[in-house]
């Protein structure tokens, strides 16, 4: 799988450095994904050019217009992306495998297993917080998100896994809700606390 | 000169009042704490404290609010240098230089340089502020859209130093950042662009959530690919949390001096942010450095240039705020609001009618710098202790804190969605060599560039010659062009040199097998 080619071995595969550690692939990227990312940039640029063609001039016409700047940006971006793709494809046969030197992107630390899937799970936690905070309330959702994200980092000591997110949630609720005065979404816990402690917002 | 001396002496005399010193200390601690929280800028930090100023005298209230703004800028740099997580847009370059130092076991040097640049950058900006407050207030009348366009172009030209190893990917990243400003209302005709029927996009993409997503969330996601103890990667030496000494930071003095001047000048222009000043200062330092190859690899000159300009911009923002009654940033809106509640009338005559406001501002800037000098290092050292806590707990909680911080700005879940989306984009950009820093800075500058360009052309009756022949516009654009050419040549040379070093190293490994 593409994630495997990046040096990822999944969240369960981290047995510590030096124990069946994979070949050090830091500094190398999968050229197929590199081309795919650049192709996505090219597609974005073309979409900008095509969409800006349909923009109407407003009541105050100016020489550049609403579509001028987007078309310029889209055109330059498309040209740059096309050159990058052509360059990569021109050297395709020359490379020994699909892992090639990166273009200075941030590398993983060498000789330490990395998980290509964990960032997606963490994004899912963020999306879960976003989706759930209005209905379940700030306290429950933030605690759940903190717990889930700490658990994804393979923390299994119960004090760190449960106590730290709990203390963190209470602290951040107090800081943002009470000190900064931010109106945090209220859920069952907040409503219960407001019933018994009316001075709480 | 007489005004400068009078303002300084009156400002110092205000500092002898115990209540002023107390509130300065509170303001510095509070401002630093808020600055260190991602998404919580000086707007929130000052906003929370404005009600406290209702019962204060103006000569106590103004230094208090100014100290929060100054310390917020200092606080922004701390998580950037220690964790690679900028507290705001201006901390992006500090995250690159400072965090590299921290990973090398030189966290003390990173935090120390941040402290040195903030404190001395702030102090140096005070005389510049006093010398320039009257003339620059006058220039702000002359600076119309064409001149602002030129300044934004200067900022965009500075991006050439942020393109990384692949200059084409750097250009692509910058354009992606500029594209963020395309979404929403057209700056001239208010026609909706690229909203695709979504009402949330009709107001445009909020810049700060997008920048935090690109820089902070992406870095956190990338960092959390791996699970390890900090101390495996960061050398735990005695020097890691020790004050590095002034000798070690002496190299950055020139960057601090020029950064202070650039920050004061750029900060004085309404609409130009501390982030823009920081980028220009960084670029200038790189172009004139004897060791430009260190930039991007833990350069204390780069770190100092960035931080000193960002801090000096606080003094710069006071110039249009006090001199013209035009607030230079969201925090200055709140400061001006607090002054109005105290009975002052904002406008060009405010300083003439109430010169004590100028003296109080000087005392705030000077007092905050002195407070940071006294215990700024201790505040920074407290943050360095975070590296002794389990990384597997700190990073996930930093992720959640960023999301909550973004929500707190406008109490908008849409902003959190924007942050997550750009975090996803930024993650791929980081992994495949598209520099997110260039995208983030372009996002900050892009909307201002287009709106001023098009409004400027309309102002000049659609005549480009009239637009370009304005003296300040032509001068600044010429400097921007020189910067672009010189910066591009320098970047290409550095890329070729790096490539040669990598090829030589590979050839040596091959021959030794």
Question: Could you characterize the architecture of this molecule?
Answer:
The complex is a heterodimer of chains A (201) and B (513). With 201 residues, chain A is an all-alpha fold. Chain A has two domains: 2-101; 118-196, no CATH class. Chain A has helices at 2-5, 31-52, 65-90, 118-136, 138-152, 158-179, 188-196, and strands spanning 28-30, 99-101. Chain A has a two-stranded antiparallel ribbon with strand order 1-2. Chain B has one domain. Helix content of chain B is 73%, strand content 1%. Chain B has 22 helices and two strands. Chain B has helices at 2-14, 18-36, 42-49, 58-83, 92-103, 107-142, 145-157, 167-180, 207-223, 230-233, 246-249, 253-267, 274-288, 300-323, 330-341, 350-353, 356-384, 391-410, 413-431, 436-459, 464-468, 471-512; strands at residues 184-185, 192-193. In chain B, strands 1-2 form a two-stranded antiparallel sheet. Chain B is globular. The N and C termini of chain B lie far apart (70 Å). In chain B, 62% of the residues are buried.
Instruction: Tell me the strand percentage band of chain B.
Output: under 5%
Largest sheet of chain A: 2 strands, antiparallel
Helix content range of chain B: over 70%
**SS element count, helices of chain A:** 7
Query: Which stretches of chain B are poorly predicted, pLDDT < 50 over at least 5 residues?
Result: none
Q: In total, how many beta strands of chain B?
A: 2
Shape designation of chain A: flat
| Mean pLDDT value of chain B | 82
Radius of gyration of chain A: 24 Å
Structural class by sheet pairing and helices of chain A: mainly alpha
Could you state the oligomeric state of the chains shown? Answer: heterodimer
Features:
heterodimer; A: about 200 residues; mainly alpha; 2 domains; two-stranded antiparallel ribbon; 7 helices; flat; disordered N terminus; B: about 525 residues; globular
Quick recap of the structure?
With 201 residues, chain A is an all-alpha fold.
